[in-house]
Design goal:
Blueprint: H1 6-23, H2 30-36, E1 40-45, E2 48-54, E3 63-67, E4 72-79, E5 98-105, E6 116-120, E7 123-129
Antiparallel strand pairs: 1-2, 2-7, 3-4, 4-5, 6-7
């Protein structure tokens, strides 16, 4: 038994073909690049968070890393790519060019003054140390009487 009727499956396939024909595939859909570039991996270790962003060909002077007041990490910047058009012999361009912005909420147990970043071989790495939380601390909280 099919989950979708045969006609519905054909409609989905047709929609996908139409998008591919109109935009050259999902990867070139106008909103795709701005929301998913640069691609970022986030790793949590017992003592830190590590963000790794793919930034090949982007000079570090064109990247800004900001810890916002609402405890969010923002990565923004722009890529400078030579202009290319059909007159120069390009049949298709897939490389992203323009500005980008990614934002990631962070927990409250970080050490903002200890955040470090470095770039190597097209990977931007941001290390965010965690604060040590005293797990042994225990306290009874009294409930105040309402007046």
């Amino acid at each position: 038994m099919d989950l979708l009727p045969h006609n519905s499956l054909n409609l989905v396939k047709k929609f996908r073909r139409d998008i591919d024909r109109l935009f050259g595939g999902w990867e070139t859909f106008p909103l795709y690049h701005k929301s998913l570039f640069p691609k970022v991996d986030i790793e949590e270790k017992p003592d830190k968070f590590i963000f790794r962003a793919e930034t090949p060909g982007i000079e570090t002077k064109n990247i800004k890393i900001l810890l916002k007041k609402d405890n969010a990490l923002a990565i923004q910047g722009n890529t400078e790519d030579e202009a290319c058009d059909e007159k120069e012999g390009f049949l298709k361009t897939e490389r992203f060019s323009g500005s980008f912005y990614r934002e990631f909420p962070l927990p409250s147990n970080i050490q903002p003054e200890e955040i470090r970043a470095h770039a190597k071989r097209g990977i931007l790495e941001i290390v965010i140390p965690k604060k040590e939380i005293d797990q042994k601390f225990e306290r009874i909280i009294e409930i105040e009487a309402a007046e």
